[in-house]
Protein: FtsX-like permease family protein
Amino acid sequence: MNLLKLAWKSILRKPINHSIYAISLLITAFISNTYWSIQTNKSVNEVIQSKESFAAALTIGGIIVFIFLIILVLYTNRFYITVRQNELGTYLLFGESNFSLLKLLFTEQLLFVFTAGVVGNLLGTLFSKLFGTILVRMMGYENQVAINVSWEPVLVSFALLIIAAVFVTLFNIRRFSKISLVSLFTGNSDVPKIRKGNAFLAFLGIFLIIGSLLYSTQTSLDSTILILFVSFTLGVILFINQTLTWYINYKTRHRRYFIKTDMISTASLRSKLPRNTFQLTMITLLSSVTLFFVTFSLLNLETQKVVPRTHLPDDFLYSYVDQVTENKIHQTFKGEIKSHKQFEAIAITAKSPIKSAFTNSLQFGNDGYIMSLSAYNKLRQFRGEKKLATSLQDNEALSFSRGSDTVDLDVQFQFQIGTTPKTLHVIKRLDATMIGWRSDIVQIDGEKPPTFVVSDVYYSNAKSYGNIQKFSTFLLKEPTKQLAHVKTAVSHLPENTYYSAYVIPYTINVESGALLLFVSTFFAIISFMALGATIYFKQLQEAYADKPRFKLLKELGADEKILHKNIRKQLAILFIAPSLLGTAEAFALTVPIINEVDSINAFSFVSSLIGVFLLIYLLFYLSSVAIYRRITS
Structure:
């Protein structure tokens, strides 16, 4: 018979058996097209400032997402072959060879790949605007995103489907090279192993889980996060490997065990848990790590919004050039200027090692500034900060090293004003900023100038050596939305003019943080689907192995409602254990991070993500119960 016709008749005869596999290929095509459409969407790329980082991050994230999609397809195919074992056995019974069956399955692969590719790419193209808009909004832009119509996402999507089909074909070749006619009809005949579980280890697992949850609310990120992860992971391993098996075996020893309605599910779990524990343990740990990674990405995004402000207290600051340039910049920011101030400092060149008075010395250049204490306090008032309650004598000075603890020093720091050597006695390093780091439209983290505050008397004497630099600083109404204005203002400045713009690192940081969050969320949803599908297909495979047992129970007079109730209980434990334990571990690991960042409210997003995670597992559970009942009926 023609293979194409035979494959088509097989699909029409039992469409449900084929639909699960077809849906997994459709999801693969849809996600790959959507994901690649974002990277090639012109309207998205127009608003991105760091295009190379954007492309690199999406590519790396795409590789991880695509690997999980292939895993999803492989697991679906494994179940797909299992449910068709009687059909394939019949073909062997009528004289077909293993090679003929492989050709039949490969022909079906081509039909599925073509259909899923066409439908998935069509849906991906339509949804590319939605996902592109979500990414752009996460980055803080208001630009409109168009539907991406391009051949590149389509080709990538079909390429991924072909790669998945190749892996599936290799898997089928390996399986059919060892298959026999008897094994196709008898299925899994392994005698299940019974494990009793250790009571001490069972309760130790519970203790570690509860203790880790309680301790996570008290610990900090920098001290015991690794210990917390190890203790909770050990608790999860013990709970699944010991606590569940011990509890199930404890139930079998109850004097009313044989008259209870859940005896069937208890006996089934007693034999199934040993061969499911490794899988459930890995799914739990991967779920918790995935949830933690997405939560960490959210906190990273929120932190990235805060960090630039600590280093760049002025929305826009530049070395004063002349009044004409000043007028042009005023005109550029017209209507957006909240306040404006000019101040002066003396340019110096450091001669002593930077690390003697500053931390993170590699971030600093040698050209810096000194400012009088009274002028610096006026600048702090302008920025809305408190004055420094300190006094300086002779050549005493304060150094600025933002991001470091304020500490007392006793350092003789040598520098030059022009060609004149001088020495400052640095008595304290402040966690503060005088002048933000040098900004650049392309490279956001320019050199930081080494800056000092000196007494008014010392500054007045130093002015006689010249090298006075005037600065102009602006505080803007909506500083995070001034990138276009800043670019225009910079274009009015002579080349190599020192300027510091808050919006430049803010924009790039938010872009990178939002991209990491977007990719990690995308990956998390695919990961949840793949991990849930792992349990789903594993249990449906076992449903076919249980079919003769359920048939025997019905012949012995077992009530169908009681059998269905036991199916629900049995599958509930196998789905609830990894989902709840994974959620709990992710929560325990996340709490110390949230405690470190007081200003961030991440609970709404984290709750939504956990809701999606539990919803996916719930849908898999309900679907597996329905199909399990159909298989065993």
Remarks:
- The chain has a mean pLDDT of 80.
- The radius of gyration is 33 Å.
